[in-house]
């Protein structure tokens, strides 16, 4: 599939076409509108649709992906087919060209309003590492429920920010076991969690669980996500009601939402289940919804880990089925994340907590030793997945720099 | 202060004036608009403002309280002053009369779009009861952090529903210690939690904690809240990341938001602090923000408990300061709840878990014995607070009936 200005093999070629929201400083006082990434360019999808008299012009001429997300799978497929035509059929070239802008010339924004944000804990390797670090004397690092349900909790949707947003080091209470009382100050154990986020498009009413088989009808696509974590705040606060201020200061997401339709070649079976599953979670007779995403975690440009998403024990379809099995409704813009992605190998761990074994084994980076993040550090998550005909499908990066505590 | 059609001593007299959103089935195809409660009537506040050429006509002619919430304290006071004049000064009587509708003739709606929902755990009596029930052998029922910070967690804002909404019994996994594996089915330990919710009006930017002294600048008012809880789901899922499906199926709020300005006579000092507080939580030199709210919990019309909100260890001002101390931003429509309100006496406990001591001592109701809720049971929370000159300020009720699992 030839497409103008995209080199052969580019992970953002016309086989990918992720969606975002952008603005150009010079134009229309920087109004936001839907963009589709093509190589190192952004297609103003609404302007292109209007020029081509597409029926999707209105849906794509919005300051958020919300209406597109809500439109449902048939429309998602139709819009994707139209976009593919526009960027690949030579006769459209002249029409489209004025609406392609260099990525470097635009500002990217949070692409949709986050309704509820849920974070899961779906990597067995991660959960085992955390168990071993915090409960070294326990015979079993996993909690008894871990293999029976995808553990999750609600996070703060108001502090989900787009890639490129600086993150201020949070302050709060911490108390080591030897401190007589808690102390207050900037976190001294600031960490990241490399995750994948799933974006709900089509809502569901209260009282109507979404079965495994309906995953694709509700979920539009996915993004990369960095669940910034202040380990010292978290460990003091989290018993008995879970993480709160240790997480709620910021969660970064990629500016690009990759539609599930771009990732069909990347679908894989999840790891073999070691425990029988209750029927609503039993995916043995369903289409598999594991994804072969190869994530890379870099600190100050130096790759420190390559977590394989294919190793996740619980799939996004299982997470959605669990999240709604009690009758909880879904809204357009609901975002749920996988939890830290960690593979079995030491260099596949998705958090500094695990990579440095809670600070015991600092990482040697070109910019110095790191147990946890220092002010000024920049963390970048990138990922790709196998695409059609040997191509790669690139996910949008998540980048964030640590600012000193205010 | 005489006001037409409100009996002397009515807890919803002109000293109260809570806000809600209502519609009338006959009019304008049931359009929603801001209402103010006066006795057993609802004033169409926008229509009254337009008739009186008030500068607040636009703010009050909306289908949600959002714009009013966002307008800030000066406007909140000005609007309240205007409303007080309209409903008390005789010369306005004729103008206002057409815009007063009997409560029984209108539908009440969720009064604002809930942004993030946070639930705290601020009653020492409740926390001690829960500790004693679930950890009977522990020497100290409170977790070590309890007296140092207001423990909280995020809930699901998409399933916050207005009073009067039926609640379907949730299904999910449960496992008693003697079960060899978890089982799936409708919750068999469905409970309530009597709480008070605080509604954020004015947002705050990321990285800017809200100090104790700014509580009134951000929080508009409060409501009653029933945090429905499936104890069996909750106890199996909640380690290590906190409550999830045991809570996320529904949270009911009153249709009326009582402005803080109506509750100045109800302000009291919180209980004496037994542990020193870190400076950001130390309210010893601040105006006290405890509230003397007398809550009543009824099951099928029979009062089972009268929890006193004045006994809460952590105040709403402390909760807001804690919630933002890590730099988390606030949005208009953020809702945070107190956690179960339980007083020291057995008949002041705000949950069936405590009232029946985890089912050991069922309640004898006229409708039969109850350990937990049965299908068809209706739970109603009501409350009042001391008002000016010996009056009572009524809070809007929260009512909800249990529907069988779907």
From TrEMBL, chains A, B:
Domain called Fumarylacetoacetase-like C-terminal: residue spans: 118-402
Keywords: Calcium, Hydrolase, Magnesium, Metal-binding, Phenylalanine catabolism, Tyrosine catabolism
GO biological process, one term: L-tyrosine catabolic process
SUPFAM superfamilies xref list: FAH, Fumarylacetoacetate hydrolase, FAH, N-terminal domain
Pathway involvement of the protein, from the record: Amino-acid degradation; L-phenylalanine degradation; acetoacetate and fumarate from L-phenylalanine: step 6/6
Known cofactor(s): Ca(2+); Mg(2+)
Enzyme class of the recorded protein, top EC level: hydrolase
Residue ranges occupied by any Fumarylacetoacetase N-terminal domain in the UniProt entry: 15-111
Enzyme Commission number, as recorded: 3.7.1.2
GO MF: fumarylacetoacetase activity; metal ion binding
Binding site for Mg(2+): 227, 247, 251
Residues reported in the UniProt entry to bind Ca(2+): 119, 193, 195, 227
Record has Amino-acid biosynthesis as a keyword: no
Annotated protein name in UniProt: fumarylacetoacetase
Lineage: superkingdom: Bacteria
Organism this protein belongs to: Streptomyces ruber
Active-site residues (renumbered): 126
Residues the record lists as binding substrate: 121, 135, 234, 238, 340
């Amino acid at each position: 599939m030839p497409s103008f200005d995209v080199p052969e093999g580019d992970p953002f070629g016309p086989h990918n076409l992720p969606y975002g929201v952008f603005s150009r400083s010079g134009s229309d006082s920087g109004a936001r509108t839907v963009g589709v990434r093509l190589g190192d360019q952004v297609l103003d999808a609404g302007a292109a649709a209007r020029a081509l008299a597409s029926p999707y012009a209105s849906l794509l001429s919005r300051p958020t992906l919300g209406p597109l997300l809500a439109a449902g799978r048939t429309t998602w497929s139709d819009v994707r087919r139209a976009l593919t035509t526009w960027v690949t059929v030579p006769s459209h070239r002249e029409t489209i060209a004025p609406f392609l802008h260099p990525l470097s010339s635009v500002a990217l924004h949070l692409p949709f309003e986050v309704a509820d944000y849920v974070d899961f804990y779906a990597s067995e390797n991660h959960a085992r590492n955390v168990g071993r670090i915090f409960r070294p004397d326990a015979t079993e690092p996993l909690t008894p429920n871990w293999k029976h349900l995808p553990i999750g909790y609600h996070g703060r949707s108001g502090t989900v920010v787009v890639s490129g947003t600086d993150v201020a080091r949070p302050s709060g209470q911490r108390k080591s076991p030897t401190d007589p009382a808690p102390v207050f100050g900037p976190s001294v154990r600031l960490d990241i969690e490399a995750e994948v986020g799933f974006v709900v498009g089509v809502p569901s009413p209260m009282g109507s669980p979404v079965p495994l088989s309906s995953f694709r009808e509700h979920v539009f696509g996915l993004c990369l996500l960095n669940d910034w974590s202040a380990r010292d705040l978290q460990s003091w606060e989290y018993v008995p009601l879970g993480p709160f201020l240790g997480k709620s200061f910021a969660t970064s997401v990629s500016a690009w939402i990759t539609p599930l339709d771009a990732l069909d070649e990347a679908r894989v079976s999840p790891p073999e289940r070691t425990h029988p599953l209750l029927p609503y979670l039993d995916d043995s007779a369903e289409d598999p919804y594991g994804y072969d995403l190869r994530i890379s975690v870099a600190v100050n440009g130096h790759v420190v880990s390559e977590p394989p998403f294919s190793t996740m024990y619980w799939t996004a379809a299982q997470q959605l089925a669990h999240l709604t099995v009690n009758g909880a409704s879904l809204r357009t813009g609901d975002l749920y994340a996988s939890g830290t992605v960690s593979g079995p190998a030491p260099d596949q761990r998705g958090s500094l907590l695990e990579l440095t074994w809670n600070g015991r084994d600092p990482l040697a980076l070109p910019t110095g030793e790191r147990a946890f993040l220092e002010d000024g550090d920049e963390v970048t998550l990138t990922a790709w997945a196998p695409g059609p005909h040997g191509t790669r499908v690139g996910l949008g990066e998540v980048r964030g720099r640590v600012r000193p505590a205010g």
